[in-house]
Write a structure and sequence with these properties.
alpha/beta; TIM Barrel; 9-stranded mixed β-sheet; 7-stranded parallel β-sheet; 29% helix; binds N-(aminocarbonyl)-beta-alanine; binds zinc ion
């Protein structure tokens, strides 16, 4: 019997399918025993706590510069510290391709920034903004072989968007190589057309960001992305889904047997477009794309979490400071909405905000674990290592107090942002201790400095990215 370095004693282990009382034994940074009455060199009293897999936040932006001069406030250090304090032990941020350039240099530099500074483990998605022949033909296949097995494509934002032909190039490549494609689905031309009309009428305040991107803009792009994927028989995950019409598109595709996955985020459960109308320029804090909708759409998003339309609950942490010339005030306090960096922070509050849905009986503990940890690990090729309390997996664990009530205050969070959109909200359930590969990263509610402990995770080819084998085109054209 292997000597146990640490035992988590007397907690309730929760997986995506079960919950049961057991001790968890850790050695060499991995879970090596789950049983009754284990003994170890150190023991942690988990009585009354849930033993959850550490969260996998598979959609975060840290240390990401924008082509407009914006810069996320969180770097790998503060972003992973904040993640850890909210129960997350793996993040997947993005290395961005600048148009006209390749990807390899950007990916290597980005990975080096994370190594030596991240507190918890991280993988990297690619953002493909210029799928040239060389990128699609050589660079991406080589990067996929090196463990960068997922990429995001945008249907909006001038500096990132791909046209349909380019989307097909990327989707066909994903099919050939077995990678997962994430799609930001909004119709760029519709947004530009509406924005021009709003500008002509002087409607430029933050709240008009929501007017510029009504639900049909997201619905049309979601429908189109799914159709393109069907054409070339490529699975895809639609990210940050905001409301009913996009949910319906995804549900319909899933009912037809297409491998279409869905992701949503806390902002679509807890914010509405009214938050963009906060006094003065403050509405800028809640500008993100797609925009938060209304209460009826929040209900639809909850229901879609319960019914399984969504597999992933990510933060889409896009941490721009409010009072910062590289953040929300990039173009000043009178800036028109289209010059305000998009995104809201939420890496630390992601799991507590969803857990509050467990406390209120809206979702089950198993759904919570699946959405925050097990499914994202599977969808991005990290199964076996991350996302589950299981023998052989990394000892990434959140010991969670389901009865702890807490008022969210930015002053208590550990990110580098000067606000949280959830200020003053009361949630029930918060992590007490968080462990990454057997080491405390948060203990008794306080961060334990683990700068540099986090390692880069090369991802496997994800099983869910496998095509169905039923393209709508002759296979020799793909
Ligand atoms: O508004 C958002 N979602 N900003 C972050 C970037 C992205 O599109 O995910
Ligand atoms: Zn996006
Ligand atoms: Zn994002």
């Amino acid at each position: 019997m292997q000597e146990l370095e640490m035992v988590l004693r007397g907690g309730t282990v929760v997986t995506a399918s079960d919950e049961y009382r057991a001790d968890v034994g850790i050695a060499g940074g991995r879970i090596v025993a789950i049983a009754d009455s284990l003994r170890g060199a150190s023991e942690v009293d988990a009585g009354g706590l849930l033993v959850l897999p550490g969260g996998v936040d598979s959609h975060v932006h840290v240390e990401q510069p924008g082509s407009d001069g914006s810069m996320t406030a969180d770097d790998f250090e503060t972003g992973t510290r904040s993640a850890a304090c909210g129960g997350t032990t793996t993040i997947i941020p993005f290395a961005v391709q600048e148009k006209g350039k390749g990807l390899r240099a950007s990916v290597d530099a980005y990975r080096r920034r994370g190594e030596g500074r991240a507190w918890i483990d991280f993988a990297i998605h690619l953002i493909v903004s210029d799928p040239s022949e060389a990128v699609v033909g050589q660079e991406l296949p080589a990067l996929i072989r090196d463990g960068y097995t997922s990429f995001k494509v945008y249907m909006t934002y001038d500096d990132l968007k791909l046209d349909d032909r380019q989307l097909l190039d990327v989707l066909a490549l994903a099919r050939r190589e077995g990678a997962m494609t994430m799609v930001h689905a909004e119709n760029a031309d519709c947004i530009a057309w509406i924005t021009q009309r709003l500008a002509a009428k002087g409607r430029t305040a933050p709240r008009f960001h929501a007017t510029s991107r009504p639900m049909p803009v997201e619905r049309e792009a979601t429908h189109r992305a799914i159709a393109l994927g069907e054409l070339v028989d490529t699975p895809m995950l639609i990210v940050h889904v905001s409301g009913r019409e996009a949910v319906e598109e995804i549900r319909r595709a899933q009912a037809r047997g297409l491998r279409v996955y869905g992701e949503t985020c806390p902002q679509y459960l807890y914010l509405t477009e009214e938050d963009l109308g906060a006094p003065g320029f403050l509405g800028a804090c809640c500008i993100c794309s797609p925009p938060p909708r209304d209460r009826a759409n929040q209900e639809v998003i909850w229901d879609a979490l319960v019914s399984g339309v969504f597999q992933v609950f990510s933060s889409d942490h896009a941490p721009y400071r409010y009072d910062d010339a590289r953040g929300k005030k990039l173009a000043g306090t009178d800036a028109p909405f289209w010059r305000i960096p998009n995104g809201v922070p939420g890496i630390e509050t992601r799991m507590p905000l969803l857990f509050d849905g467990v406390s209120r009986g809206r979702i089950t503990l198993q759904q919570f674990v699946a959405l925050t940890a097990t499914n994202p690990a599977r969808i991005y090729g990290l199964s076996g290592r991350k996302g589950s309390v299981a023998i052989g997996a990394d000892a990434d664990i959140a010991l969670w107090d389901p009865s702890r009530e807490r008022t969210i205050r930015n002053a208590d969070l550990h990110h580098a942002v000067d606000y949280t959109p959830y200020e003053g909200m009361v949630v029930k359930g918060w992590p007490v201790h968080v462990i990454s590969r057997g080491a405390f990263v948060m203990r008794g509610g306080a961060p334990v400095d683990r700068r540099g402990h986090g390692r880069f995770l090369p991802c496997d080819l994800p099983g869910p990215a496998r095509p169905r084998g039923q393209p709508a085109l002759p296979a020799d054209l793909l």
